Amino acid sequence: MGRRRFGSVRARASLGATAVVAVALLAAGLAVLLSLRSNLTEQADRQADRAAREVALDIASQAPDRVAYADLELPDEEDHPVQVTDEDGRLLVASEGLERISGTGVRAVRAAATPGPGASSTGSGSADGDDDSGDADGDDSNDSDDSHDRGGSDDDPAVGEIGDTTSYGSGSATVDGDTADYRFATIEATDRAGETVLVHAGASLADRQDAVRTTGLSMLAGLPVLLLVVGGVTWLMTRRALRPVEGIRRELAAITASEDLSRRVPEPATHDEVARLARTTNETLTALEASVERQRRFVADASHELRSPIASLRTQLEVGEAHPALLDVPGAVADTVRLQRLAADLLLLARLDAGERPARAARFDLGALVHEEVSQRTLDRIPVAVDVLPGAEVAGSRGQLARVLGNLLDNAQRHAAGSVTASVRRSGSTVVLAVADDGPGVPDAERERVFERFVRLDDARSRDDGGAGLGLAIARDVAERHGGTLTAGRAECGGALFELRLPSADDGPTPA
Fold it and tell me: Starting at the edge strand that comes first in sequence, how are the strands of the sheet with 485-490 ordered?
């Protein structure tokens, strides 16, 4: 049962919608976190730049004889750790509580000596023994994107001024035993003594990290709830949308169980795909009901038509067995022939209903076929007049089209008063075979019904004179299988006119 639920359209739609929303939310959350991180990083850069400029302005504003870096008033070291170095990377002064630093390119945290005015060349070492000339061990190589030229250059600020360009980098610092991540701003300043120094000031990234962490955790906490809501809403909406489909399925199952094709599935009042499915299903049921009804009527009529010649033949044989002198041999032969023809007609109709098309399609002259068939009908009650034009070639089964011609001539012989005509002509890309007689004709209201199976008009009910009512039905089916048409009309002489129209072999495709 669980597998069936998981495999249902409703479950798949809910899971698919949940998965899509989950991917979209994760992508949106990641974008929000990256944007938040970028904005907070820019905020830290501004704070670090402001702290570095305050120290740089203090250095640039001192009098030439009063430049004492050890006496500089530095910002709070916990929020803004500061290093001041000369152009050679020697540490001049650092925040009081600074114990370790990375990301500025100078690892020293204690100046070797307090330089006086113009004495920046003193202090070649650091209290912790590190080389102040640079980051020799590459510990700060990850900050190379924000590096700048710390040697003397033509771009050094003028005496008593600070540089216009600030470079930034990321690193960490340990202040009073607490280690945190920082963004460092580096700016140049030239004191009144002409000494150019680099001021490194940091701004804590703790707020950024806390904000990103809090936002990420909030998103992760709300994601399952939101996905449950999306999945539940999709489940309910899909269930509501598929409820008519379930009604259609139940009704079809009931129709299948009861075999009552007169029942129809419910059609929703909407105009969506489900409503169109219901209408199409009902149309299919209508066509199926009509097909089954035709099949049932066909079987009943076939049984009735077969019963008469079989009963007549049996009666004649039983009489002949009891009284040989009374045996009607010609009548028995006629009943046998009639039974044979009826069986052949039923077999051909069955093959046509199964969708059989001409097995052998070939080009031939339809006028020559008419001459050949008429010449073999020596026992006809009325001679057939032939009026054909040469060169009227068609493609198809010669045997089946000969059967159509024979059925049309048989029908004309039964109803004609004294004239039957068969003609062949071309009409554009169509070859027309017409069979006309001078009989009573076919009433307008009956011109389509005569092509139904086992249909005989009132004046042709006699089984002695009329057929089984299959000839014209077979003729129309064969015509349609050849891509043509067969219609009934009124002849010039007032009788019936049947026209078979087939595509010309010169213009139309050969039937498959």
Answer: 384-388, 420-427, 430-437, 496-503, 485-490
Structural Rg of the chain based on CA atoms: 53
CB atoms within 10 A of CB 185: 28
Query: What is the spatial distance between Cα 250 and Cα 268, in angstroms, rounded to a whole number?
Result: 15
Residue 270 is given by DSSP the state S
CATH code given to domain 360-503:
3.30.565.10
Give alpha helix (H) positions in 259-325: 273-322
CATH number listed for the domain at residues 273-345: 1.10.287
C-alpha 204/C-alpha 206 separation (Å) is 6
Angle at 240 between CA 238 and CA 243, to 5 degrees: 105
**Cβ-contact 80, 114 below 8 angstroms:** no
Instruction: Give the span between the Cα atoms of 148 and 70, in whole angstroms.
Output: 25
Residue 125 has pLDDT above 60, yes or no: no
Residues 6+ positions from 410 with CB-CB distance below 8 Å: 467, 471
- SS3 state of residue 82: strand
> Among residues 389, 396, 392, 386, which one has the least CA distance to residue 365?
392
Kindly provide the residue ranges of all beta strands, DSSP E only, lying in 44-95, ordered along the sequence: 82-86, 91-94
Q: What is the mean pLDDT of the chain?
A: 80
Q: What would the pLDDT profile of 29-85 be if each residue is shown by its tens digit?
A: 899 999 998 999 999 999 999 998 988 888 888 766 555 777 777 887 777 899 899
- pTM score of the predicted model: 0.48
Q: Cα torsion at 337, 338, 344, 348 (round to 10°)? A: 150
Sign of CA dihedral 409, 415, 421, 426: negative
In whole angstroms, give the CA distance from residue 115 to residue 123.
7
Q: Are 132 and 92 in contact (CB under 8 A)?
A: no
Domain boundaries, the chain: 59-205, 273-345, 360-503
8-state DSSP, 162: B
What is the spatial distance between Cα 18 and Cα 430, in angstroms, rounded to a whole number? 61
* 196 phi/psi in degrees, rounded to 5: -95, 125
What are 353's two structure tokens? 């209903």
Q: Residue 245: what residue type?
A: V
CA 146 to chain centre: 50
Ramachandran sector of residue 121 (left: φ over 0; alpha: ψ -120 to 50; beta: rest): alpha
* pLDDT tens per residue, range 477-489: 889 888 899 999 9
* 492's tokens: 């010039």
Distance between CA atoms of residues 89 and 130, nearest Å = 12
